[in-house]
Amino acid sequence: MNRQWWHDKVAYQIYPKSFCDSNGDGIGDLPGIISRLDDLKDLGVDILWLSPIYCSPLADQGYDISDYYNIDPRFGTMEDMDRLLEEARKRNMYIIMDLVVNHCSDEHEWFKKACQDPDGEYGKYFYIRTVKDGKLPCNWRSYFGGPVWDKLPGHEDRYYLHVFHKKQPDLNWENPRLREEIYRMINWWLDKGLSGFRIDAIINIKKALPFHDYPADRPDGLCSIHNMLHEAKGVGDFLGEMRDKTFKPHQAFTVGEVFNEKPEELPDFIGENGYFSTMFDFAETIFGHSHNGWHECIDITPDDYRSCVFETQEKVKHIGFISNIIENHDEPRGVCRYIPEGELSDTAKKMLATLYFLVRGLPWIYQGQELGMENIPVSSIEEVDDISSLDSYKVSLAAGLTEAEALRLIEKNGRDNARTPYQWSSAPGAGFTTGTPWLRVNPNYKTINLEDEKKDPDSVYHYYKKLIALRKDPAWKETLVYGELVPWLADTHNVMAYTRESVEGKILVIANYQTGPRCLPLPAPAERVLLNNYETADLRGQEVFLQGYQVLVLALSPDSQT
Ligand code: TEU
Ligand code: CA
């Protein structure tokens, strides 16, 4: 594998609207981010991904862009953006932005011009169809519920496609003029000094055409969009063209948000000369999901989690470098999803952090994850902002759940969980704002916040700092960045363990993924304890006695056989 500058880095996702508010309007902004760069540098992160801050009506919190070339005034100015790039550069940090090009906002000038003249040049930037007798071109369901077709504003018999929200009209990637517009915009940002992009929902840009129905999977007569994604062919033509016309000439770092990729296509996506530098591992993210709604989702167990992670590691080990997460802005807090209910503790949070952070690939930390931030309770639907949750609430009620049951599902799965304001301190507003926050602050900010955790050497925050420092430690870096991952005790219930092996060393990560203590075999006697989420380690030669949710990172003798 050709080594890349970003392989030994640590990446961090900022959700700007909830990160740090500098002017008291309750909305996070660029000056707020700039004011916190030293905190991020101190944590040890290198690459910063900013969720969208372009002009937007915020129908989908910025993933509905109305001007690709400007910063939304709520987040700041282009001068602020230039300052962020400069301040990051001074700190040897790298800024990547969100590239949202499957769709734009219905308030984008392109869409406004398309509404004025659906048969003109800009009408061809979108999927617009004539509809007779109300028969829609296809019965696909939007990711946010309802049909993917809505009336073109100002027209009775013209409809436009939106696989996400109706304020997010899909861009027609079959149109080379549209593609050139996108490439021009990408190059403009890369010329400004961006280090690259996170690429949003990109698998959706290739539709299975001509539009046609699939069997309905709910009484609404609609079907999951995944039917279409499974059938669509040729997304690589667009992705390869984009890579060759933008990313490659700039040597840009890119991470794809790719669901539903075809397994045989993986080398094209992240292999040598892949469309992207890397892509996120979503195997454990989507585990147990049901197209029928959250009420049919299956909880992930520790054994399921381990299987998902190891399956991805096996899939990519000869192909490329995967990106590893436990959460992002679309998911509940990882510690609430991957630690069994009722067993959440700082010890368990540190165990989970160790397990995902030290597998092979690029580790990503989502804002607040380093504090051990958790899901937020929901007492009424009025508190909920997330459009995906609001749709799921309706689906739950339609499926016969009570309102209380529907709210519990939002608490468990909703996107607001990751979007509550960053908890900087125990001051009112959690130090996020001096005003009224746009979204409720999690009531646990009194005990889970950066300021207090910085003072506590046993905090989740300090554990993350040690974890990051270990991965960057010159003595172990070659093994932890490039070492082969070899599962250990892969069939033992509630155990997750693996070695990382290189010519320079052999490291064992071993976790007792349950409350009950027990003795586990080691592949070889440990030479050193590199990290431990307990005070002590009870090493017994070829065995180790682990407490509940104890994880150890052990240096083994390099010539020991696993
Ligand atoms: O999400 C793409 C996506 O398909 C999944 O994350 C999920 O289906 C969606 O979040 C609905 O729950 C990306 C962004 O990460 C997400 O925030 C945006 O809402 C979406 O694209 C549209 O831009
Ligand atoms: Ca603000």
The CATH homologous superfamily of the largest domain is called Glycosidases
| Shape designation | globular
The strand line-up of the biggest sheet is: 11-10-9-5-2-1-13-12
Q: Characterize the largest beta sheet: strand count, sense, and whether it forms a barrel.
A: 8 strands, parallel
Mean pLDDT, as a whole number?
A: 97
What does this structure look like?
The protein is α/β, with parallel strands linked by helices. It has three domains: 11-103 and 175-464, Glycosidases (TIM Barrel); 109-161, Alpha-Beta Complex (Oligo-1,6-glucosidase, domain 2); 481-556, Sandwich (Immunoglobulin-like). Helices cover 29% and strands 17% of the residues. The protein is built from 17 helices and 21 strands. The protein has helices at 30-35, 37-43, 78-90, 109-116, 176-192, 226-231, 235-250, 266-270, 283-286, 302-316, 334-338, 346-357, 387-398, 403-413, 450-455, 460-472, 477-482; strands at 11-14, 47-50, 54-55, 67-71, 94-99, 128-130, 149-151, 158-161, 196-199, 253-256, 278-279, 323-324, 362-366, 484-488, 495-502, 505-512, 518-521, 526-532, 538-540, 543-546, 551-556. An eight-stranded parallel sheet has the order 11-10-9-5-2-1-13-12. It has a five-stranded antiparallel sheet with strand order 14-15-16-21-18. Helix 12 (346-357) packs parallel to helix 16 and helix 13 runs antiparallel to helix 14 (403-413). The two termini are 24 Å apart. The model has no long low-confidence stretch (mean pLDDT 97). The protein binds 1-O-alpha-D-glucopyranosyl-D-fructose and calcium ion (CA).
